[in-house]
Design brief:
With 238 residues, this protein is an all-alpha fold. The longest helix is centred in the N-terminal third of the chain and has 33 residues.
C-alpha cells in the first residue's frame, strides 16, 4: 500500500491508475498454452509425489507404532529432519549434492523424489493419528474370522484409516501442488518456470503474475471441489 501527500492509503489498482500504467495481456495470451502445459506438469508432479508419499507415510506410520525401538527411532528421525528442513533446501540438496556422490538424476525425477520424501514426512503424522483412532474391536473381529495381522492391516485397518484421514490428505495434496512452484528453482518447466520466462521476455510483470495466480487459484479450487466430492462419496451414512 502507498500513501499520498495527505496520508490516505491508496489501493494497488489506484496506484496503477495514478501511474497511467496500461495493462497489456497480449504477451501472456501469446504464450498461454505454455502456461497451461506447465500447469499440467505441476499437477502430474503433485499426483505422482502424493502417491509415493502415501506409501512412504504409511510405512513410516506403522514403523512409529512398531514394537521395535529401532524402527520407531528411524521413523522419528526421518519425520523430524524432513519436516524441519525447508523444502527448497531439500530440492537443492538432492539435485546438486547427489551428483557429488556419483548419483546423477534428471531434474524431474530429482524433484519428484524430494517432494515425495517431503510429503511422506507430513503424511506419516496424518496416518499415525488415523491408525491410533482405529477401534481395537476391528482387529479383534479380523482375528475372530481367521485373518492374520497383515491381512487385517491390508483389508481392515488401512481402508478404514484412509477414509478417516481423507480430509487431511486432501489438504496435504493441495499444499503439495502449490509446492510444485519451487521446481522452477532447478528449471523444471512447470507453471512458475514458464511465468518467469514470459516475465523476463516481455517485461509484463503484473500481467504475467496475475494470470499465473489465477491459474493456481483455479486449479486449487477445482482440486478442492473434486476431493470434497470424493469425501462425500466415501462418507459413511449415519
Amino acid at each position: 500500500m502507498i500513501r499520498n501527500n495527505r496520508g490516505a492509503v491508496k489501493a494497488p489498482i489506484q496506484v496503477l491508475l495514478t501511474m497511467n500504467y496500461q495493462l497489456n495481456f497480449a504477451a501472456v495470451w501469446r504464450d498461454f498454452d505454455t502456461l497451461l502445459a506447465g500447469l499440467g506438469l505441476g499437477l502430474q508432479l503433485a499426483v505422482l509425489s502424493i502417491a509415493i508419499g502415501c506409501v512412504i507415510g504409511l510405512l513410516m506410520a506403522f514403523a512409529m507404532l512398531s514394537r521395535h525401538r529401532a524402527l520407531r527411532v528411524f521413523a522419528s528421525v526421518y519425520v523430524t529432519v524432513i519436516r524441519n528442513t525447508p523444502i527448497l533446501v531439500l530440492i537443492l540438496l538432492i539435485y546438486f549434492a547427489l551428483p557429488s556422490l556419483g548419483i546423477r538424476l534428471n531434474k524431474i525425477p530429482s524433484f519428484i523424489i524430494t517432494l515425495s520424501l517431503y510429503a511422506g514426512a507430513y503424511l506419516t503424522e496424518v496416518f499415525r493419528a488415523g491408525l491410533l483412532n482405529i477401534p481395537k474391536g476391528l482387529r479383534e473381529a479380523g482375528l475372530a474370522i481367521g485373518l492374520g495381522e497383515w491381512r487385517i492391516r491390508a483389508y481392515i485397518t488401512v481402508p478404514v484409516m484412509l477414509r478417516n484421514v481423507l480430509p487431511a490428505l486432501s489438504n496435504n495434496f493441495i499444499s503439495l501442488f502449490k509446492d510444485t512452484s519451487l521446481a522452477a528453482a532447478i528449471a523444471v518447466p512447470e507453471l512458475t518456470y514458464y511465468a518467469r520466462k514470459i516475465n523476463v521476455e516481455s517485461y509484463r510483470v503484473i500481467e504475467t503474475w496475475l494470470v499465473t495466480t489465477a491459474l493456481y487459484v483455479a486449479a486449487c479450487y477445482l482440486i478442492a471441489m473434486l476431493l470434497r466430492y470424493l469425501e462425500q462419496r466415501l462418507a459413511i451414512r449415519r
